[in-house]
Design a protein that fits this description.
- About 60% of the residues lie in helices and about 10% in strands.
- The strands form three sheets. The chain has a four-stranded parallel β-sheet, sandwiched between helices. It has a two-stranded parallel ribbon with strand order 1-8.
- It starts with 5 loop residues before the first strand and ends in a 5-residue tail after the last helix.
- It has two domains: about 150 residues, Rossmann fold; about 250 residues, Dehydroquinate synthase-like, alpha domain.
- The chain is of the alpha/beta class and about 425 residues long.
Length: about 425
């Protein structure tokens, strides 16, 4: 438990939630749910809150797929009306992000009441949102508290838990990418936070069998890991400790589905499969000798602004300006800066390979995912081989962070 965020994951989570609200004089509440989460927990929670004397309103979101976008932000605001209420997000990722966004922009507080161990964003301040068709994390606020009923969480569809486990596995890639960013691009890095995330994901892997069985012990361990990951993002004031090249591949595919008006695929399921791809990059990175790396660096040519613009226009039509702005630090790199970057890679090759060695093999990652019922291949999720290749080729353009994908695209190290 932290001083600033009250966390309870256990039996009968509605009881400590009621006690918390009474102790903090949170009398007027606004529950946000969809049909599934209302049936799983929202109806029961609403009835208990009303019986305890609280003034409770409900925003029940409809639709085949609930997405954190302008449509649902506005709906929750309209349902709330011009009243001061504490929001309670009853659901998983998108519902929590919608509630986080609306509560922040209405100067209200919110509480997370998760119904599945499917994402790591419950405790974070960021709300991954789709704004004008562009997937970006909007930094809002963390919740006052997180109250998870272990029986509700354990009863969630196994695919939801597989999503949470896939999201956690992605931390192996994110942490390695973060170290690359510090080593090669001068990004800020917090070793203590990095170690906390590593411990959290290792503990989830140790309980992979229990998670696959949806036992209360396994789901408790998974929720503990997801919450710790969110807290680490909060402490770092960004998503760097928990999001790397694997998340960028997932974000690219999420936007693709939105543009095609197709149903979304669970975030963590995509992240898990993308993590297998990125673990393969690190597999190959471990096998490249310094001499071979220098040869590849010598052959590499700095991409021109025109090349960047052509790639961005092809991959992200309609949002080119946003993506160009993200890539400006790389696009504007001087010739001398590019030479210095390649020399830094050559000089630090042993450290780069040590970073690569910290990532489990792609085969091991795939084995863990299979054990919990996740997917190991993005094509099994309905994406064509061409769409997967596009995501692999262009997703590095979505963020201005340095990662293993950027090492390949910008510097010519052959990892594909």
């Amino acid at each position: 438990m932290r001083d600033d965020i009250y966390i309870y994951i256990g039996k009968n989570a509605s009881d400590p939630l009621i006690e918390y609200c009474k102790n903090h004089h949170l009398d007027k509440l606004m529950l946000v749910a969809d049909d599934n989460t209302f049936a799983a927990a929202g109806k029961h929670l609403s009835e208990k809150l009303k019986a305890a004397g609280f003034d409770v309103k409900m925003s029940l979101l409809k639709g085949e797929e609930i997405v954190a976008n302008e449509q649902y932000f506005v709906q929750v605001m309209l349902d709330t009306g011009n009243e001061e209420r504490t929001f309670i997000a009853v659901g998983s990722g998108s519902l929590t992000d919608i509630t986080r966004f609306v509560s922040f922009h209405t100067r209200s507080n919110f509480i997370a009441y998760p119904t599945a161990a499917s994402v790591d964003g419950y405790t974070s301040a960021g709300a991954p949102s789709v704004i004008a068709g562009f997937k970006k994390t909007v930094y809002c606020q963390s919740p006052l508290g997180v109250f998870g009923d272990i029986d509700v969480l354990s009863a969630a569809p196994q695919r939801m838990s597989a999503s949470g486990f896939g999201d956690m596995l992605g931390k192996y890639i994110a942490l390695a990418d973060w170290r690359l960013g510090k080593l090669l691009w001068g990004e800020s890095h917090d070793e203590a936070i990095s170690q906390r995330v590593r411990v959290a994901v290792d503990k989830c892997v140790e309980r992979v069998h229990e998670i696959s069985q949806a036992s209360t012990e396994g789901i408790q361990a998974l929720m503990d890991g997801l919450i710790e990951s969110g807290l680490c993002m909060l402490d770092a004031n960004n998503s760097r400790p928990a999001s790397g090249a694997e998340h960028q591949i997932s974000h690219h595919l999420e936007m693709k589905l939105l543009w095609q008006h197709k149903p979304a695929v669970l975030h963590g399921i995509k992240v898990g499969a993308a993590s297998v791809i990125c673990a393969g990059y690190y597999d190959k990175l471990r096998r490249i000798s310094r001499a071979e790396a220098i040869k590849q660096l010598d052959r590499a040519q700095q991409p021109t602004r025109e090349q960047y613009e052509q790639e961005i226009a092809q991959a992200y039509p309609g949002i080119e300006d946003k993506v160009l702005a993200e890539q400006e630090p790389f696009i504007s790199l001087s010739e001398q800066g590019y030479r210095d970057l390649k020399q830094k890679i050559a000089d630090n090759w042993a450290e780069i390979q040590a970073i690569a060695a910290s990532v489990p093999s792609s085969q091991q990652m795939a084995g863990w995912l299979k054990q919990v019922g996740g997917e190991t291949d993005l094509t099994a999720l309905g994406f064509s081989s061409a769409e997967v290749k596009e995501a692999v080729d262009y997703s590095h353009l979505l963020r201005h962070r340095f990662n293993v994908d950027k090492l390949s695209h910008l510097c010519g190290i052959n990892l594909k």
